[in-house]
UniProtKB/TrEMBL annotation:
CDD domains per record: YjgF_YER057c_UK114_family
Native organism: Arthrobacter stackebrandtii
Assigned protein family: Belongs to the RutC family.
Protein name listed in UniProt: Enamine deaminase RidA (YjgF/YER057c/UK114 family)
Amino acid sequence: MPVQYLSPSALVPDAPYHHVAVGTGTRQVHVAGQVAHMSDGRDVPPGLAAQVAQALRNVAQGLAAAGAGFKDVVRLTFYVTDWSPDQMEGFMAGVEMAAADTNLTLPMPPASLIGVAQLFEPGLRVEIEATALLD
């Protein structure tokens, strides 16, 4: 496996993500920001949890197209509109909703959550970028 995860005890304990990823592969996979668009054209689901889950499913589709999965991810970046810490429960609910059908394990790969004023389309709450490493 080209990715090893570490969570040193000196860093924030019980984070929902690993603090460090060590990659040894040579082929990089970069998945552009994915949002909660539905592949069948249905409306974007309302609510933060549902949008996080769908965006993660879309990231999984992008990874799979390159022969990768969440086990190969060295970095996730979440951009969330109108973020406040009291939304963490809903955010994590979305992560957990998508975990089973995307093989995303918890804690997640190293991740950043960045609050933003808005995304490129009204009604979108989250956009997710992923970087993976393959042998």
